[in-house]
Amino acid sequence: MPIKIPDKLPAKSILENENIFVMTERRALAQDIRPLKLLILNLMPTKIVTETQLLRKLSNTPLQIEVDFLRMVSHDAKNVDKSHLDTFYEDFEAVHERDYDGLIVTGAPVETIDFEKVDYWPELCNVMDWAKLHVHCSLFICWGAQAALYHYYGIPKYDLPDKLSGVFEHSIEDTTTRLFRGFDTEFWVPHSRFTEVRAADIAESPHLEILSLSEQAGVFAVKSKDNRSLFITGHPEYDSDTLQLEYDRDLVRGINPAVPQNYFPGDDTLQKPIVRWKAPAQLLYGNWLNYYVYQSTPYNLAELASNPGEYCCGEGI
């Protein structure tokens, strides 16, 4: 089944060239089923790249999905054409009375800034509070995960001595969790960040459960015990060349970055990167959509606000 997106969104032609079935708004109107309604809060400066990466992962499932994009009005986005934002993105004021099956909050290049000093922090907090009543299940990625863990549970972030960049091996802590159903015992995920959350802090919360760890990259996946929020500290959605582009960008800026770990054969940056995370990434997004959204969301989304704790999926089934 397809993912439903606006007719002129740049990702449409990119995904169609990859033989991914996307459905335009006009065609979707002829189908008599309720699609899953997703909201993506895209905090990344490279809006179109991130849109395409996420839509690529969301589109490869048997579910029909309708996607809206959200922006922060309290932040001036400088790396995307204003017409793109005006055409495809909405402000929180426009969506706050709606209900959604799922919400995705991306990472953002603000990790070294205190949460409260990020210019859109109050607006982001409003979105996260709203999601508790108007979204069935939320998925927070990288800095978005750190921000949500801090806002909801007071989990702090810590500066790393150096940027964590590369592709790292992970293990599954809870083998019964549906998020990792179908996964191998160990799997690989890209990370690109300057800060971390720590397992010891998360373990002290009675509301959270650690699902996956990496010996090199630390905490990777956490979920709330009511299954309404999942927190992913890495970037499983990354393209094969994303870490390379970040590395080249940092070289141009004179940052003298370390070579991304476990990425270039023999750490030779002239070689083509080794890609070993796309299959688990696709499975992770598919499992989130299927088990945490589709199988437990109410048909009438208006029921979320009146019964916020009723709709959640059981684990270990």
In terms of topology, how is this protein built?
Layout: E1 3-4, H1 10-17, E2 22-23, H2 25-28, E3 36-41, H3 47-59, E4 65-70, H4 82-88, E5 89-90, H5 92-95, E6 100-105, H6 121-134, E7 135-141, H7 143-153, E8 158-172, E9 186-196, H8 199-203, E10 208-214, E11 218-224, E12 229-232, H9 242-252, H10 278-294, H11 303-306
Parallel strand pairs: 1-2, 1-4, 3-4, 3-6, 4-5, 6-7, 7-12
Antiparallel strand pairs: 8-9, 8-10, 10-11, 11-12
How is this structure best described in words?
- The protein has a single domain, classed as Rossmann fold, CATH 3.40.50.
- The protein is 31% helix and 24% strand.
- The protein has eleven helices and twelve strands.
- The chain has helices at residues 10-17, 25-28, 47-59, 82-88, 92-95, 121-134, 143-153, 199-203, 242-252, 278-294, 303-306, and strands at residues 3-4, 22-23, 36-41, 65-70, 89-90, 100-105, 135-141, 158-172, 186-196, 208-214, 218-224, 229-232.
- Strands 1, 2, 3, 4, 5, 6, 7, 8, 9, 10, 11 and 12 form a twelve-stranded mixed beta sheet that branches.
- The model is unreliable at 27-32 (pLDDT under 50).
Helix and strand pattern: EHEHEHEHEHEHEHEEHEEEHHH
Helix percent reads 25-40%
Number of strands: 12
Cα Rg:
19 Å
Low-confidence stretches: 27-32
CATH superfamily (homologous) name? Class I glutamine amidotransferase (GATase) domain
CATH T-level fold name: Rossmann fold
CATH class: Alpha Beta
Number of helices: 11
Q: Give the percentage of residues in beta strands.
A: 15-25%
Largest sheet: 12 strands, mixed
Gap from first CA to last CA: 25 Å
**What is the level-2 CATH architecture name?**
3-Layer(aba) Sandwich
